[in-house]
Write a structure and sequence with these properties.
- β6, α7 and β7 form a beta-alpha-beta unit.
- 48% of the residues are buried.
- The chain has three domains: 139 residues, Rossmann fold (3-Layer(aba) Sandwich); 65 residues, Putative phosphatase, domain 2 (DNA polymerase, domain 1), CATH 1.10.150; 206 residues, 3-Layer(aba) Sandwich (Rossmann fold).
- The protein has 18 helices and 13 strands.
- By secondary structure, the chain is α/β, with parallel strands linked by helices.
- α10 crosses α18.
- The strands form three sheets. A six-stranded parallel beta sheet has the order 5-4-1-6-7-8, with helices on both faces. Strands 10-11-9-12-13 form a five-stranded parallel beta sheet, sandwiched between helices. A two-stranded antiparallel ribbon has the order 2-3.
Amino acid sequence: MLKYTTVLFDLDGTLTRSEKGITRSALYACEKLGFTGHTEQELKAFIGPPLFWSFKELIGMDEETAQRATEVYRERFSTIGWAENEVYTGIISLLRSLKKNGARIAIATAKPQVFAERIAKKFGMAPYLSAIIGPGFDNKHASKAEIVKKAMDELGGHVVMIGDRKFDIEGGQANGVDTIGVAYGYGTREELEVAGATYVADTVDELADILLGDAPRAKGVFISIEGCDGCGKTTQREALVEHLAVRGWDVSMTREPGGDDVAEKIRGILLDPANEAMCAETEAYLYAASRAQNVRTRIRPAIDAGKAVVCDRFVDSSVAYQGGGRGLGTARIAALNDLAVDGTLPDITVYLRMDPDAALARRLDASKPDRLELAGEGFQERNFAAYEEFYAGEGMGRVVAVNAAQSIEDVTSEMLDKVDERLDALGV
């Protein structure tokens, strides 16, 4: 059972690493109004306090100039700065675990609410939140105490306020609730302790231990990437891993065949062109064996730890390549792999859809072919047909199909938009 049923998070420095957007926008406003000589490092002090206060107290502006600076700051922040953000690793897993255990979760920030809402949506936090509380553009004097009170009035329950600066701790104390200072943000442990934080956490893991105790943690997500040889899986896998990391996931990456040392040895046998005498049935069993090892040593432990697992190919590749390409039958190969996967299946599968001849030509231009890429005429076409038939029969439930014949940038954009939409809908 959770100690706190309502958990209020500050945004900047608590949920997200946001210095680029804030400091660059503050520097933009200062220089535009003639307050030159400041640096981005110096302007990190803007993270946490209300913006109007920062221009007055930190830069030395009078009220009229501070108001104008606030408006100029938002010229840049509203178009560029708000997206110069990165969720701290492990935060998404924490939010999912809190929600799994029935907590009401809210952002309580001095940042204008419209920006906080935009950031929460873009970076994948919105599905886990009960509310986002922040001031309007016209409320330049809003204090953290007022914001916390508004959140408490809306959500009720046994409340804790979490933040990285003394303002967050003072805001919680003014409302008589426990506070947790996070020393991984933009304040210091000393600042948080002097302010009187009930607890101080040095890492996101420590914060999770304080909030969750012995309560069960949410599992992670499993994403596989599929498609014919040459469709661009490696490039798009890297883009997906980077994207998930920016959204606060602890990401574990693996591949098939392969994974740990045992599975990688099997991979070497499977892809070695010298093993051209290998029969189709042996190939199918070796893929399943590698998969069984990968599931038990890499994939399942990472999912249980709340991580996002990205796997370059999984069981669908065997269904397509051995079931379709080798002619062993898609249903037989799916059944053969039941023991290997033992119920561990992707939550999301990215299918990079591309004409097999064009994909293979692109692949062969890039490097020497492996044993499967040297397979006889019609092999890649049968693989593609099996993918198309299997995914159509599955109703595309877990599958997001992406047009891989576009430019690399367009493929990435389409893939990430579709994965984000599916992630937001997954729940816990």
